[in-house]
Amino acid sequence: MTQNRTGSGPSPAARVADGAMVVTLHGEIDLLVASRLSARLDALTAGPRPDLVLDLRTVEFIDCAGLGVLCRTRNRVRDRAGRLRLVTDSAAFRRLLKATGLRDVFEVYPRLPAFGDD
Hints:
This protein has 118 residues and is of the alpha/beta class. Helix content is 33%, strand content 30%. It is built from 3 helices and 5 strands, in the order ββαβαβαβ. Strands 1-2-3-4-5 form a 5-stranded mixed β-sheet, covered by helices on one side.
């Protein structure tokens, strides 16, 4: 277990870049943090046409509860005619998406998009 758990410290870091909300997640996304993370992402996707980028590159572990949070967030974004992108360079995470049938459900990128103001 890592000490840098996504839900144990302050809310995940978030910033706006070219109109997209970029949220950097760290550590583990599991049952212990799923509720708190879900509430934070609900708040960030409450408005119309949310554009959300979740940077998962420093996430060390994700379980089924974490995948549930990602699916819930995707559904909220779609219901509001928005866009959700996941950023990860983890082959293990990509295999997990494939094994769970979620590979084609998410837009997944190996690096952050090139934002004009960065």
